[in-house]
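Today's session is about reading a structure prediction critically. Students often jump straight to the picture, but the first step is always the sequence itself: look for stretches that repeat, for charged clusters, for runs of hydrophobic residues. Only then move on to the predicted structure, which in these notes is written as discrete structure tokens rather than atom positions. Here is the chain we will use throughout the hour.
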Amino acid sequence: MEDLTIGMIGLDTSHAIAFTRLLNDSDETYHIKGAKVETAFPGGTEDFELSRSRVGGFTSELRDSFGVSIADTMETVADKSDAILLESVDGRVHLEQLRKIISYKKPIFIDKPFCLSTEDAQEMIRLSELYETPIMSTSALRFSEGLTSVLDNQTRGKIIGADCFGPMELQEQQPGFFWYGIHAVEMLFTILGEGSDRVVTVKNDDHDLLTGVWKDGRIGTVRGNRKGNFQFGAVVHFEGGSEFVSIHSKQKPYYASLLEQIMLFFENGVSRIPLSETKEIIRFIEAANESRDSGKSVLI
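Below is the predicted structure for this chain, in token form.
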């Protein structure tokens, strides 16, 4: 079977390099066989410094170090590829980018954040259904071995709650939890699943603390910090006890675990995460951000 030809859109993130190295470099320890990034479109957002300042360097690295052909348009990438990694770091542009490539009917992975509003999420899902083109979006932390190994434990009964934590740098263009807080929110939904009902957020200059209540009565929290602690983790509460999750405890990088799941998605067209859950995560973050501003509990 021939390798899948992967196209990449949005070279303004380190994820573009990480994914390409795992796919294209056969000497990489966690090299993933069966696909290669062949064509890419740089993209970039002029009013977002973290995009504007990085897109040139990452584009050069993909071309010079990995032999990736740089295209002038997104449509060229879609036309030449079997599947697409939409990596643009700015969630504001994902809907417009999707509109330009969805008609090519290639499976598309959309890196986090899926988008920045429930309205955009609904439209992106509608386009996927209209063009019968599968899409998938998630944070890499969802498939980290540190988390999946705890969730695979069947000996402690049902999950009754969770407390997640991680760094939460803020960016004006990707408000509140949409920038880095989304990683810990994705962990929370990986543990508790769909069914959130309401959320309230407490914040100060150094921390955010989000408390979500699920419709079945379970409670989950997300602590985001801006004090230099860059560790991600969680405590999963089972009926029979609680277990600590260290995202960084396993040797295998979580990018590799995520990319393995993306490749399965590219092969069979089935998202590893229901789009209904992806949409709920976006609404949950919207509500958490509303609560950041108002201090009040917000319904999902």
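Discussion point for the tutorial: The chain has a mean pLDDT of 97.
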